[in-house]
């Protein structure tokens, strides 16, 4: 019995560095984007020139809509139900792809 415990102990000791190395080499999760169509409110996107340019590029006329101020506290995903013809899933995917390229404003 003592021999089995010693052998098991040696196996665990020998395996520990390999487990630690495997965990250290695991790729880190990608950081969340600074801006999101699902979580960033429209007011924040409008107030940042870089993100506003993304909206203007992908959603022509959206930022000039006279009702835009009423939506400042909502997200693009939240407004989608009211403008489904403009804020399609494909359009929001394009907006998100461009937003992913913009670092957080400091």
Automatic annotation (TrEMBL):
Domain of life of the source: Bacteria
The organism's taxonomic lineage, starting at the top: Bacteria, Pseudomonadati, Pseudomonadota, Alphaproteobacteria, Sphingomonadales
Identification of the protein by name: Uncharacterized protein
């Amino acid at each position: 019995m003592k021999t089995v415990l010693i052998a098991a102990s040696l196996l665990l000791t020998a395996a520990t560095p390999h487990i630690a190395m495997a965990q250290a080499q695991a790729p880190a999760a990608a950081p969340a984007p600074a801006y999101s169509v699902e979580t960033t409110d429209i007011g924040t996107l409008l107030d940042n020139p870089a993100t506003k340019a993304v909206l203007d590029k992908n959603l022509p006329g959206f930022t000039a809509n006279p009702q835009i101020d009423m939506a400042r506290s909502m997200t693009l995903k939240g407004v989608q139900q009211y403008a489904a013809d403009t804020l399609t899933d494909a359009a929001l995917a394009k907006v998100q792809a461009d937003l992913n390229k913009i670092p957080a404003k400091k």
